[in-house]
Design a protein that fits this description.
This protein is α/β, with parallel strands linked by helices. The chain contains 10 helices and 6 strands. It folds into 2 domains: 5-137, Response regulator (Rossmann fold), CATH 3.40.50; 144-204, Winged helix-like DNA-binding domain superfamily/Winged helix DNA-binding domain (Arc Repressor Mutant, subunit A). Helices cover 50% and strands 13% of the residues.
Length: 210
């Protein structure tokens, strides 16, 4: 009897999830059993459905981002197999995601067959990192973002995605004053003058869409 790999898709774009669901459900040994549009939903739905593999985007609406969702899921289920599928190709996102415990990292430019192969490998306990991402991890493309601490990178990502200071404070369980401190440190380290410069940098790096 064929062993079917159950998958949960996490992406804030419904049309993107629909495409990936169609691709994976058309594979004999893979079945999508849950979908989430936010990090909060991903966390709760994982506990409800216990999928074999989570295919997770990093860019989320204001609130719990992809990286934070990964950490929360792994905190309650260390055995979770999480495969990141995102537009974010530059460091330090890949290394931070893998350090957080994700089993794989793919870009949304990957071929359909590569996603299917990655799901299977992650399910069987192996890591899968796209070749282009491996080049990033090998240090061939340096980025100023490597200067940011883990907390600063979280704040950077949410600011770039349009989250307000209040929303960031709520999602990270810190004060708004602390968010402002992180924002100031981020601008200094990246040699930027204001938040709009930060957003433009994030667009250039493919971290958010224009």
């Amino acid at each position: 009897m064929l062993n079917v790999i159950t998958v949960m898709l996490v992406d804030d774009h419904e049309i993107v999830r629909a495409g990936f669901r169609r691709l994976l459900d058309n594979t004999d040994d893979i079945s999508v059993i849950a979908e989430a549009a936010t990090g909060e939903d991903a966390y709760s739905l994982y506990q409800e459905h216990s999928p074999d593999v989570v295919v997770m985007d990093l860019s989320m609406p204001p609130g719990v981002g992809g990286l934070e969702a990964i950490k929360r899921i792994l905190a309650v289920a260390p055995e979770a197999n999480i495969l990141v599928l995102t537009v974010q190709e530059c460091e330090p996102y890949p290394s931070r995601v893998l350090q957080a415990g994700a089993k794989g990292y793919l870009t949304k430019r990957c071929a359909p067959e590569e996603l299917i192969d990655a799901v299977r490998k992650v399910y069987h306990g192996n890591e899968y990192v796209a070749p282009s991402i491996q080049k990033e991890l090998d240090g061939k493309k340096a980025s100023k973002l490597n200067l940011l601490t883990k907390r600063e990178l979280q704040v950077f990502t949410q600011l770039a995605g349009g989250s307000s200071v209040a929303q960031i404070a709520d999602s990270m369980f810190i004060s708004q004053k602390t968010v402002h401190v992180h924002r100031s440190n981020i601008l200094t380290k990246l040699e930027l003058a204001k938040t709009s410069d930060l957003i433009h940098m994030a667009i250039r790096h493919g971290i958010v869409e224009a």
